[in-house]
Design goal:
Elements: E1 18-20, H1 22-27, E2 33-38, H2 49-61, E3 71-75, H3 79-91, E4 94-100, H4 105-113, E5 117-121, H5 133-143, E6 147-149, H6 157-176, E7 191-195, H7 200-212, E8 218-224, E9 267-271, H8 273-287, H9 293-306, H10 312-315, E10 321-326, H11 337-344, H12 352-360
Parallel strand pairs: 2-10, 3-4, 3-6, 4-5, 7-8, 7-10, 8-9
Antiparallel strand pairs: 1-2
The protein binds 4'-deoxy-4'-aminopyridoxal-5'-phosphate.
Catalytic activity: L-homocysteine + L-serine = L,L-cystathionine + H2O
Protein name: cystathionine beta-synthase
Pathway: Amino-acid biosynthesis; L-cysteine biosynthesis; L-cysteine from L-homocysteine and L-serine: step 1/2
Length: 362
Amino acid sequence: MTAAILDNALGAVGHTPLIRLDKIAKAYDLKCNLLGKVEYMSAGGSVKDRIAKAMVEAAEREGKLIPGKSVVIEPTSGNTGIGLAMACAIKGYSVIITLPNKMSLEKEALLRALGAEVIRTPTEAAWDAPESHIGVAQRLQREIPHAIILDQYKNVNNPLAHEYTTGPEIVAAVEATPSTSAHPSSGKVDVIVAGAGTGGTVTGLSRAIKKKHNKECIVVAADPKGSVLALPNNLNDEDAGAMYVVEGIGYDFVPDVLTRDPTEIDYWLKTGDEESFDAVQQLMRKEGLLVGGSSGSALSGALRWLKSDAGRPIAETEGKNVVVLLPDGIRNYMSKPWFLKIAMEAEPSPLAGTIAQILKKP
Ligand code: PMP
């Protein structure tokens, strides 16, 4: 992004900062650089703005969208919907979003504020059931004239958006930062950690980094307990069918855009709600970063991997760069009980006693 005037909010999609997580690294005794790619700073508030913009622009190039006529329908966990609703508000297309019930009220409110219709669907419906968010979107598309599903689960522009933007931004930031005695750097992205929903992010990041920057880079993917995305498959057995609260990652089917190539994703980890929310609290308290739940999953997965036999040699090497993708922000989740718990039931500050004493005085 240049400092020049932007035509509209789509010019402020992406271009997010890569930020050191030094205090967390210190707390976990890491010698490597722990870095967060902070995607809530994108215009619509998440990493999915990038694919929404890419899918809409590609459909326009292919002549598939007509302003004032086309109806864009998309099944999503919310963030792709917000990105699409933003792009379509700007460009003049109608939008219908199908959203599983578990997704936050904040996402629904944002979607409606951007002018989208929102249809809630049962969270427990299997992906191929007619009442699921995917099934309802398909039923609507069949009946509504000029309706199109851009389909983030199959659309090549989903992983490509990350191969062309998210990945190169990370590489550019690492390459632009000189190695100093305070912050030694290998000059390369040595490890990248990302959660998987559609899998577009982790697939595109892997391709950007391994093909064009550092083929030795280790790619680690996080999948919530209860989801089926991890490989080898037996990792998914222990908590098969379990529900989880974290939004945006995990599925009950393997989307086409998620690579199954073991040379593109080196390690998979299963993450739980509790460790994810604990990691969100640390990102807020230690680093001042207002991230959402799946950012906590990515960080807790990264920390667990760095403490494993595979990760320890990296964790203990000064200058190795470990990048954690932080997909969205806490403003999507402010009414969720898990957030209110980490915000309101946090340990009292050391000032609490002093304040109470002062206010007791007549
Ligand atoms: N976190 C959040 C909050 C998301 O909305 C998504 C998108 N579903 C992801 C992580 C995962 O991204 P991807 O679909 O590219 O795997």
